[in-house]
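Repro:
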Amino acid sequence: MAFRATSLLKAAASLGSRRSFKPVPIPKISLNKNATSKTMASATTATRQSPLDVQLTFLGTASAQPSSTRNHSSLALRLGSDVWLFDCGEGTQSRLQQSIVKMGRIEKIFITHTHGDHVFGLLPLLASILNGAGGAADGEDEPRAHIDVSNPVIEIYGPLGTRAYIRTGLKYTHTFFSTPYVVHELRLPWDPKHGDHTPLPCHSAESPNGRNIFQVDGVWENIFEDNVISVSAAPILHSVPCVGYVVNEAPIPGKIDPKKYIPELKRTNTHISAMSRLQKGESVELSDGTVLHGPPRRRGRKLVILGDTHNPAAIEPLALDADLLIHEATNAHLPNIDPGTKDDETYRSVEERTRSRGHSTPQMAGAFARRIRAKQLILNHFSARYPGNDDVDPMAKIYMDAIAGLAAREYGKEVICARDLMNVTIGVPES
């Protein structure tokens, strides 16, 4: 059935305008092309300096099947010069090579669930990062079969089965690494309390110090924490065990007004280096006994990154007042826009079918964003029916504007639809 572009534009406008909304000020977000739950920072992480440059790169925004414009799920979070990945679907390595993200800076990988479209790219990526290419011929010694695993370069977090998946894949592909990794599993109350959920022993490059982390009050709080950043997690409902992650930044230095301090420093012949202490929020006592107090610290940023879900309610207490929520929107009802729409389909029937498969519609994402008071919502994880080149294709833009409009009706604010290789900078809050 053919559709005229003008008709599609009208339909898209109708979908997005049934509930008016006003954009509100948000942190600067710009688009450019059996263990305790805490852990020390990995050896690759130096003490971080606050505030950090924080930027997201969407490496893959497709759901079950990739398309010519969308890769399987993966998201890179850059914290200063370090990179953390969230999920690693098939083709992630290729997308990294096309992006501005430095593969060699990856130090942590967080897996939301072990469906293939979220993990099939993990082993090839590890092989590249940890020198897993090649092998020794018959009779030759493989030096990588015996390495020091006491200082893992890569930390991997994921649900039960993550460790077993990696071990099995590495064993039966005869892959060795020259540098070590470690896997921490987020275990549910009914998961085994001990063991690795596989009869296979640790891989030759796997640290045996991977933790099995259990919930406290229904969440995994501070599974990682250093002087600036912490990560917590909670189970979210999908068709298989799935995790949502919350990245929290510690309070950051406030804005300093040099005019308030420099005259006092000059008056008492205090070295200008005192300004760096004041900038950190510290107090400085001058030679005449005057005490200068640095500006109060501002709240840090909070990012909520969800895996596939039809109900993320369990993460709500951790996610409140997020600066950015990334939420899936796998399916949408787009009458008069999507030619694949069936005559008997309605918004309700599409939502019911989507929920039954463990996924969300744009309206469900928008409602959750409103409930947690998120300052910005970005939709992700789209069906292959929805093109990912809306920045260059007017017809694709009609689709994605309509999807964003459906979410905005529930959210009450403007919504962004992610596309592959989109970069998003999360600015420092004003207060």
